[in-house]
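for the recovery benchmark. tokens below, seq after
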């Protein structure tokens, strides 16, 4: 459909079952926010939640709040709220630390599990994509160099290489479910079967999946998963991340960051470490309570809908954006790098352009907030909980004006954060 007009998009909004959830978020007037895949919008409830934690729980009750306000159990309680969004069971997820640190734990645990096998001396390869988010590669690289036990990274350039790359020497397949640049979505179940057939384990980074894409970790029989809470889950800038360890792996989940919160009896103050037998063994040290508390505000909103409904709208929004951009901006040599097929697409859309960074900055100046990723990619995130169809139409209208009139500065100086 190429004759889509704004009234048509307004009709879609009027029929949208998720439209009422938009009122749950603080969205600045005059801004079309298409960067929720990088930092989600603020739930209105987060401000009051933070105020209560700071003023009442910390201000008035002070240290009593570890018990009275349930601070000590917060990583597990929030993990249980998150679990249904990723196909996990209760007591399999904790929210803690950063995605990078949780990756370190999960990679270490996977290598430890593989080291117990009879073929451990020949199972030394970690497979990931060269286009994976850099921190995933860096953490694996850093850990394997530090161990100095012959582990090596094998970087593939295309998912099509996975079937031939995964062999008897593969210890771990570590992939991001939705690629941060392109929005390409992996078939988690299919790849996990490939890995398990060769005796390898599968670790999934859900940073661009959780809260936007239907995920079923148990159905896929995955081994470990991590992800952040500040994108589609709307937990706030730098919010603690999450780690998932299925019950079948918990007793053997060992990692070197053995802090006291993962101890079986943390307040016994023993001189040696004994891991708790459950998911809390993935915790390290004392938790950042204010940051943790705000995550609940975003997770609570998901309780008012289903991931099936979120996914349906996500695909509709991204379909609409692709159709409008290609229909209205065709002469400006934009290149779509996001898959068209629904089963292969996450919830953001990326186009290349010769002056991608400059165009994104011009869009931001006009109130349309997307972001830029190397090399030459304009990235637009669509958060079904608060993005409207009319906003998609308006965003493309402004993009067309900028491109037609060339109201962008090709020599603009780049910000530190792009």
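predicted aa per position
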């Amino acid at each position: 459909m190429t004759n889509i007009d704004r009234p048509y998009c307004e009709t879609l909004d009027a029929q949208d079952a998720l439209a009422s959830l938009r009122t749950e978020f603080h969205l600045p007037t005059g801004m079309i926010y298409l960067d929720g895949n990088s930092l989600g919008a603020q739930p209105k409830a987060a401000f009051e939640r933070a105020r209560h934690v700071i003023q009442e729980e910390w201000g008035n009750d002070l240290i009593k709040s570890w018990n009275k306000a349930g601070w000590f159990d917060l990583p597990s309680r929030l993990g249980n709220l998150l679990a249904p969004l990723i196909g996990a069971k209760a007591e399999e997820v904790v929210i803690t630390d950063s995605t990078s640190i949780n990756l370190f734990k999960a990679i270490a645990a996977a290598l430890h599990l593989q080291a117990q096998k009879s073929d451990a001396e020949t199972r030394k390869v970690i497979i990931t994509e060269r286009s994976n988010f850099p921190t995933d590669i860096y953490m694996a690289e850093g850990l394997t160099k530090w161990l100095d036990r012959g582990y090596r990274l094998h970087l593939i350039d295309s998912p099509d290489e996975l079937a031939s790359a995964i062999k008897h020497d593969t210890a771990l397949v570590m992939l991001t479910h939705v690629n941060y640049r392109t929005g390409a979505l992996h078939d988690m179940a299919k790849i996990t079967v490939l890995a398990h057939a060769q005796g390898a384990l599968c670790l999934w980074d859900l940073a661009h999946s959780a809260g936007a894409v239907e995920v079923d970790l148990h159905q896929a029989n995955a081994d470990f998963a991590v992800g952040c809470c500040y994108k589609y889950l709307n937990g706030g800038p730098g919010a603690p991340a999450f780690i998932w360890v299925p019950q079948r792996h918990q007793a053997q989940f060992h990692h070197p960051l053995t802090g006291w919160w993962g101890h079986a009896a943390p307040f016994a103050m023993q001189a040696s470490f004994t891991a708790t037998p459950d998911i809390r063994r993935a915790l390290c040290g004392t938790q950042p309570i204010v940051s943790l508390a705000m995550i609940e505000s975003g997770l609570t909103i998901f309780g008012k809908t289903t991931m099936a409904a979120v996914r349906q709208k996500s695909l509709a929004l991204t379909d609409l954006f692709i159709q409008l951009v290609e229909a209205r901006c065709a002469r400006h040599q934009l290149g779509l790098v996001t898959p068209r097929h629904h089963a292969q697409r996450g919830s953001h859309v990326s186009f290349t352009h010769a002056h991608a960074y400059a165009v994104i900055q011009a869009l931001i100046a006009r109130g349309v907030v997307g972001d830029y990723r190397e090399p030459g990619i304009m990235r637009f995130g669509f958060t079904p909980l608060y993005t409207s169809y009319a906003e998609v139409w308006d965003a493309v209208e402004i993009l067309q004006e900028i491109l037609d009139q060339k109201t962008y500065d090709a020599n603009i100086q780049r910000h530190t954060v792009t």
